[in-house]
Structures are given as C-alpha cells and as structure tokens.
Amino acid sequence: MLEPINVSLESLNLITLAPMLIAISGALIILIVDLINNKLHKSLYVMLTLLILFVDFGSVLGLNVNERGFFDVMLIDGVSIISQLMIIGGSMIFIPLALTSKRFHEFSYPEFFALFLFMIAGFQFMVATDNLILIFVGLETASLALYTLIALHNRANSYEAAVKYFTMGALAAGFFAMGSAVIYALTGSVELYKVAEVMATRVNEPGLMISIFGSSVLLMVAFAFKLSLFPFHTWAPDVYEGASAPLAGYMSVVPKIAAFVVSIRIFGMYIDLGVEWVRIVILVMSVLTMTLANIMALVQNDVKRMLAYSSISHAGFIMAALALDTTEGNTAIFMYYALFMFTNLGAFAMLWISRHKQRRFVDLHDHPYEKFAGLIQIMPMGAVIMALFMLSLAGVPPFSVFWGKIYVMQAAVNAGYIWLAIVMGLNSAIAAYYYLKLVVYMFLKDPVKEVEVVYYNISKPLMAIIGLATVATVAAIFYVQPLVSYLYYMISASGY
Amino acid sequence: MENILSILVFFPAVAGLLGFVIDKDSAKAYGVTVAAIEFILSLWLWFSFDTSNAGMQFVEMIPLIPDMGISYYVGVDGISLFIIILATLMTMISMASMGETKNMKNMIITLLFLEMTMVGVFVALDAIIFYLFWELSLVPMLYIVGAWGGPLRVYASIKFFLYTFTGSLIMLVGMLFVAYIYHSLTGVWSFAITDWYALVLPENYQLWLFAAFFIGFAIKVPMFPFHTWLPYAHGQAPTIGSVILAAVLLKMGTYGFVRFTLPMFPDASVAAITPIAVLSLIMVIYTAMVAYAQKDIKQVIAYSSVSHMGIIMLGLFAMNSEGISGSVFQMLAHGIVSGALFMLVGMIYERRGTKLLSEFGGLTAVMPKFAIIFGIMLMASVGLPLTISFVGEFLVLLGFYKVSPMITILAGTSIILGAVYMLRVMKLAFFGPLENEANKNLKDLNGRETWSLIPLVAIVIWLGVYPKPVLEPIDNSVNALLGFMEEKAITQEAKDVIIVAKSSKEAN
User: Fold this and answer.
1) In this complex, do B162 and A429 lie within 8 Å of one another by their Cβ atoms?
2) Residue in B67, B165, B166 nearest the CB of A488
3) Are A426 and B173 in contact (CB < 8 Å)?
4) Would you say B60 and B2 are in contact if contact means Cβ atoms under 8 Å apart?
5) In chain A, which residues have their Cβ closer than 8 Å to the Cβ of B179?
6) CB distance A485–B67 less than 8 Å?
7) Measured between alpha carbons, how far is residue A210 from residues A186, A206, A213 in Å?
8) Does A481 touch chain B if contact means CB atoms closer than 8 Å?
9) Would you call A433 and B158 a contact, using CB atoms and an 8 Å cutoff?
10) Which residues in chain A (377-406) have CB-CB distances under 8 A to chain B?
C-alpha cells in the first residue's frame, strides 16, 4: 500500500505560481463577464485585460530571485523574472491596439482576450521552469492559443497562416518531445539542473556522444522552428502576412523571448558541457538566418512581408549572442529584445493604422510600398515617426535598436568573435537598404492614389501606443544604462 | 561659458525642432538668423579659445551609459576649432545664398539638423558619440539629395547613404575592439578617445584596426577607389547639398584620420604611408584627368574636389608638422573654395537650367561680377600664390618632400593639372564670343548672391596673405599630436619617420 504523501504547504512555495494563476483567472473572469452580459463593448475587455496584465506585472516584480517552488518544478531565477516582465510588458503595449476606429472581426469576441491571457500564462510557464515537461506544456498552451488568435482575423490568408503555423508548430512540438525523450533516456531526469549533473559525468563515456548529439539536434530543430531560424523559417513571412499587423509585430517579439529563454537554458547547458558542435551550429544558423533573411527582404513588395523578413533577420542576429554563452551575450539577448520590442511593435502599429478592409492598391498585398508613397505630404508626423522606426531598425544611432546592436556586437568582440561582429555589421548595411526603401517611398515620391486611405484606422489609443513607442525609440540613450545594469544583474544572479 | 560646445551642438537642433511651427514664408529668414547666431557663437568659441594651449579645451563630460563606458564627452583643440567655424560659416552662407526652393521650410529644418550633426562630429571626444553624429549626418543629407536633387536623385542619395553606412559599420567593429582591449588592460570600459590615446597597441593589432578605421574614413573622404559615390551625389544634389557636402561632410573623413588613426595607430600609420601616398597620387592625377574630360561644370568641380582631397590625404601622412598642419589648413581652404565654386555653379544653373559647358561661352560680357568672383575662386582652387589654397598646398608638398621627393613632384602636378582643367572651364564658359542666344539676356549677380560670396572672397585673400592667426593654433595642436605619436610609437622605424618640430619638443 502506498504511503500517503505528506507535503507542507510552505514547501510548495505557491507564490511562484501566482503570476500564471493571475493570468488564468483573469481569462476566466473575462469569460464569466461575457456569460453574464454578452453585449459589452470590446473596450471593456481591452481595459480588463490591461488591468489583469498590470496585476500580473506587479506580482512578477514581487518575486524573489532564485527560488524554486511546487515540487521544485517552478524556477524563479533572474532570467525568468526579466523575461516574464518583458512578455507582460510587450502584451500591454499590444492589447490597446485592438481599439481601432474601424471594427475588426476578432476583437469583437471576448474569447480573443481570454485566449490572449491563456497564451501569456503559457509563455510564463515556459520561462519559469527548467522542467522539460512543463516547458512543453507551456509551449503548447501558448502556441495553441496563438494559432487561434491568428485564425480569428477571419480572412482567407489568416486561415492559411494559422494552419501553416499549426502544422509547423506541431512538427516542432514533436521534435521537442523526441529530444526530451532522448534526454530522459540518457539521464533519467527531465529537470535540466539534474540533467546537467548527470550528463556532465557521462559526457565522456564512449558511445554516448551520438545520443547527446542526437538530443541536441532534435531540440535544436524544435527551437529553430519556433525562433524562425534558417532553414526552418519559411513559415514566418506567410504567417506574419496572414495575421493582423499588431499580432504579427507581437509574434516577432514575445513568443521569441519565451523561446530564447528556453534556448538559453537548454543550449547553454550543452555548450557548458563542452559540446562544441552546438555552438558551431548555432553560429552557422544565425549567420545564415540574418544574411538570407536580409537578402529575401530586399526583394519584397509588401512592407509587412519586408518587416517579417527583417524580424527573422533580427532573430538571427540575436541567436548569435546565444552562441557566445557569456553573461554579456545572454544580457544582449534581453537587451536587444527590450529595445527592439518598442520599435518593431511601433512599426507594425503604423501598418495597422493604415490598414483597410479591402485591398485598394494591389490584389496581392495589404501594404505595398506604393501605399506609403508621399506620406510626408499626406501625414507628415506619421511619415516622420515611421521613418524613425525604420532608421532605428536599420541601426542608426541614437535610436533604440542601435544600442542593442552595439551591445550584441561588443559581446561578440569580447568573446573573441570579431568575424561575427563584422558579419553583423555588414548585415546591418544590407538591411539599411530595405528600410531606406520605405523611407524613400515616404519622403521622396509622390502619392499615387486618393489620400484618406493611409490613416484609415487611426484612433486615440493607437496614437497613444505609437507615441509611447516613438518616445522609447528616440529617448533610448537615457534609459539604456538602468536597463543594461538591471538585466546584467538579474542574469548574472541566475548564473548564466 | 564653459559649456559653449554643448550650446553649439544643441542650439541648431532645438532651433530645428522649433522650426516646425514657423510659418512657411518666414522659414528662410528664421534659418539664416539661427545660422548666423550659431556662427557668432562659433566665433566666440574662437575668441575665448586659448591659442597657446595645444590640448583639449572646453571639455565637458557627462556619463551616459557607464556600464558600457559611453559618455557625452566633448572638447575642442586647434585642429577641430577651425573646422567647426568652417561648418557654421558655410551653413550660414549657403543658406543665405539659397534662391527659390520648393518646401523651403523642410529644407531649413533639415539643414539645421545637419548643422547639429556636423558640429557634433567635430567636437565629439567619445567614439560612440562621434559615431552617433557621424551616422546621423547621413540622414539629413539623404533627404536633401533625395528630395531636392536632379533626375537620378534617389539612386544618388541611396548610394551615398549605403556606401558610408557600410564603411562606418566596419569602423564601429574596430571601435568596439579598441574598447575591448582597453577593458582587458585596465578593467574599465571606456570609449573616450583621450583614454584610447594612452593605449599602446601591438603592431599587428594596429594594422587590423587601422584597416577597419581606414574603410570608414576613406569612403567618406572619398579615397580612390571608394570615390564613385561622390560624382553621383554632387551631380544630383541641389546646390546647397553640394556646398555642404564638399565643404564640410568630406572633411569628416580627413578629420577622422587626424583624430583617430594617426594618434591611436602611429606604427600602422607609418607603415601605411606608401600605400596611402600611392592612392592619394592616383586621386590627384587620375581624377584631375577625369575632371578635364567632363562636359558638366559641376562635375568638373566634383572631380577637382576628389583631386584636392588627395593632397589633403598626402599631407596627413607626411608625419611632420608642415604636412599635417598644411593639410588641416587645406581642409579649410578646400571647404571655402569648393563651397564657393558650387554656389557659383548653382547660380548659373538657376538662370539657365543647365550646367553643360557647351551651352556657355563669353559670359564675361553679360555677367562681369559673376566672372570676376568665379575667376578668383578658380585661381584659388588651382592654388595661386596669395590665395588660401596656396598656403595649404605648399605646406603639404613641403612636408611630404621630407618623406619622398619623387611622390611630391608627382603630386605637385596637381597644380599644373588643376590649372589645365580649371582654365579650360574658364575659357569655354567665360571667354570667346557670346554665341548662344539664351545667354545674351542673363542677369548678373543680384545683391543677395554678391553679398553671400564676398565674405568668402575676403577670407580667401585674407588667409592667403596672412594665414598666421589660423595656422598657429593648428600648428600647436599638430605638434602636440606628433610629439605624442613619437612617444607612443613602438618601432624605431616609426619613431624615425615621425618628425616633431624642435620648439614643441623643448616645450614638452
């Protein structure tokens, strides 16, 4: 007969679960509100979501660094705290973008907001654990919710996007499960800290290298899908194009932060174990990703697809920092995303402003370059702001992404990878061309069609978010110091 | 006013921001007033500048990102002082001489931002701040060329942007590497140039870093074979764009060599004398020949710019005080003379709508004032004694003579070749019979145009006859630089090549 398990409540340290529970119960509250009265306006749900995220943010800030909880499954280290803060922060910028002046289908469903909160809970689980099973559960919760959010946009190509993303995501999940299984077979554990201990003793056993190697390949494929790294990036442009513009911007930041955290935990472990192969593959993949995505972005006719390829390229850029496996390199990842988040979401929000229900310029794309021709004459402020975002993405100082770029490049130089810093520099130069292309259209060409289409969708909340993103982009020089010292402290505290 | 440098940098930027609310018709008056105040401020800087002090003055330092070693760090010495004044002067004069332009308000705002970046580059003593202004200066120029330029303007502006951007990113990697070495030696992050000066780097590091910085600066100068963007940019840019580009933006490249490359990598610089001298010679002779073959007046001046920049590069690598002082002086001379020539071409283009030499001839008869000023500037460009360029060119050649008489003699042909292509312009445009009907009713320069050119003529002659007030502070700082380079050089070979003037050595 089994002994009854005796666990004291304190040892569970349930506070570590509080942030996720807040998001989940918030989602349930939204569903209940809808059940009671189903005629409520979307603005109520937006504000509710915002408030729930606010509480969630506060609860993450209140966590202590380096604690475990819930049978040691939850891991609250510096990385998990900063990544949760960034996930929630990114979501808080995203959600007011639902308040457009024109009605879009998906936001009239309260389920959209409930799913959104479930997704955030999923991401939070993913980053706040080093248990491969819980990572898997978090990943799948978040991904399934995200597929639905994309499909809710309710257009032919958003179904295509959702199905494509779902198929690719399922494949990646399969690879992840298989990789985890191999790790379990090797070490008898799914907790990464135990895995690391056992593997460190067994890494030199003859005949085992091939399995360690195999597990890393499987996990690498899974995360290359999630992070849209070459050659597993092909889904990304189509999915971004099918999703609504703000959601595409969101996908280029928040899910990637979560995936990067897991990658730091898993691949950082392999590199620490001396599996040099992992480092080489990451470097090769990141260089190919940034270069090829840049070249593809050059030939796009649609601004959204261009931005999609540019986000892939930025992901490749950041992936290189992962291979360095230094505290600075890991800080660079978060630093880059923290700065990139505002600019990229701002740029996608500008596309969202100009979005109309029918395609008025060409049948194939929502946002062809021609749409922005002569924007300086139609909407001078809008053109200047969009140009600021483009210059920032191109890495022109003193705008935000530049500081991320030099931090990554400095980390690469410090780790002895000068060639990598040069490749990054050259890639930034290639990238400047396609960002400039939009600037050229906006400033140096004449408008092609009737004018009102460009700011079709504008509303006060959208303007507020874009204003916030602009300030964050332009004034980056003033907050880089506190940001970098906080991130560095948190990451070195968690031992990466 | 100890913080005059910050005022000089941010005054045009603030004025540019406020410019958004100025009424369209008053924009030009606003711009000229602001530029004049800025110019007066820069003159004030000159008067409060201690000419006997060779080091950095008016230094300000505010840490921005201490964890990365980046701070707002500015200062000025004899080398940068006059380039700053050149920048403010040329902005003011070119703005004042500007004729009817569409979207005048946008132009004025863009120019004011450009002025901020130009002054910023020359006062920055922190590598990242330098890089920041350096890159930022591309954006207004891109807009000026792209929005007000000729038919190929978009191509020209993007080519200009991408060329410089690519080069400077390589330079950025170099800067990051220097910071890394500094950190590994001292344990402190710093991007301050004055801190970097104290680094003694092994020779192979120096060579690689020299190459990285060289790419960034050489594209800007532009050195052969990176010069191909320049004729496009000049050919397509509006007059004011060409004036600023030739007068100030190109100087950023040569200034970069003086500020970064020479003092930081003395051994590599000495090792690079011969290759750089060869490239400079190609610039001098080859582009002079290309200039001769041009059909368009503006292109002649554009190529002559490249040719003169070759002389400046040659002087910088003479490694003695005559050469470097001469080339800093020549930067000023070239800024004023080529700026004036571009303004003159712009004036005739405004009247006739063409810049082709074949369209003109005998202009002296209808435009005497124009012909006289053009003639003076043309002579100055060639390097006639008693004009500003003569001083610079002579010192450069004198300085380089100590390094290699052969190369100096070849470079000296620049005066002859310059005379050949410039006099050809003179002959075709101004002399001979007035045949073209369209030219017969051309109006001579009006008051605005004349009065914006006369100060430049005055400076050309004043500094040609009596260059001492400008040359002395430059010479002081250059001697300090050389003394410092000699001390820092590792190899005996480099120490031998770097010649420090006697007086400054004793003073040290």
Assistant:
1) yes
2) B67
3) no
4) yes
5) 410
6) yes
7) 11, 9, 5
8) yes
9) yes
10) 391, 394-398, 403, 406
Looking at the DSSP assignment, which residues form a beta bridge with residue A131?
Answer: A191
Q: What distance in Å separates residue A35's CA from the closest CA in chain B?
A: 51
> Which helix or strand (DSSP H or E) is residue B57 part of?
strand B57-65
| Burial label, B93 (beta-carbon count in 10 A; 0-12, 13-18, 19+) | buried
Report the complex ipTM.
Answer: 0.88
Q: Per residue of chain A (496 residues), give pLDDT as tens.
A: 677 777 777 777 888 888 999 999 999 999 999 999 888 888 888 999 999 999 999 999 988 888 888 888 888 888 999 999 999 999 999 999 888 877 777 777 888 899 999 999 999 999 999 899 999 999 999 999 999 888 888 788 888 888 999 999 999 999 999 999 999 998 888 888 888 888 888 877 777 888 888 889 999 999 999 898 888 888 888 898 888 888 999 999 999 999 999 999 999 888 888 888 889 999 999 999 999 999 999 998 888 899 999 999 999 989 999 988 888 899 999 999 999 999 999 999 988 888 776 666 666 777 888 888 888 888 888 888 999 999 999 988 889 999 999 999 999 999 989 999 999 999 999 999 999 999 988 888 887 766 556 677 788 888 899 999 999 999 998 999 999 999 999 999 887 7
Do A325 and A299 meet the contact criterion of CB atoms below 8 Å apart?
no
- List, in order, residues 6 or more apart from B446 with CB less than 8 Å away: none
Shortest Cα–Cα distance, B389 to chain A (Å): 36
Residue from A290, A326, A443 whose CB has the most chain B CBs within 10 Å, to mutate:
A443
Q: With H, G, I as helix, E, B as strand and everything else as coil, classify residue B296.
A: strand
Which DSSP category does B126 fall into? B
Do A421 and B176 count as a contact with CB atoms less than 8 A apart?
yes
From the list A394, A407, A425, the residue facing B170 with the nearest CB is A425
Phi, psi of B71 (to 5 degrees): -140, 160
What is the separation, in whole angstroms, between the first and last Cα of chain B?
29
Task: Report yes or no: A410 at the B interface, CB cutoff 8 Å.
Answer: yes
- Does A301 contact chain B (CB < 8 Å)? no
Question: Residue A23: what are its φ and ψ, rounded to 5°?
Answer: -65, -45
pTM of the model: 0.91
3 state DSSP class of B72: strand
DSSP code of residue A67: E
Q: Which two tokens stand for residue B490?
A: 């590792």
Q: What span, in angstroms and rounded, lies between the C-alpha atoms of A118 and A141?
A: 7
Within 13 Å, how many C-alpha atoms sit on residue B232's CB side? 18
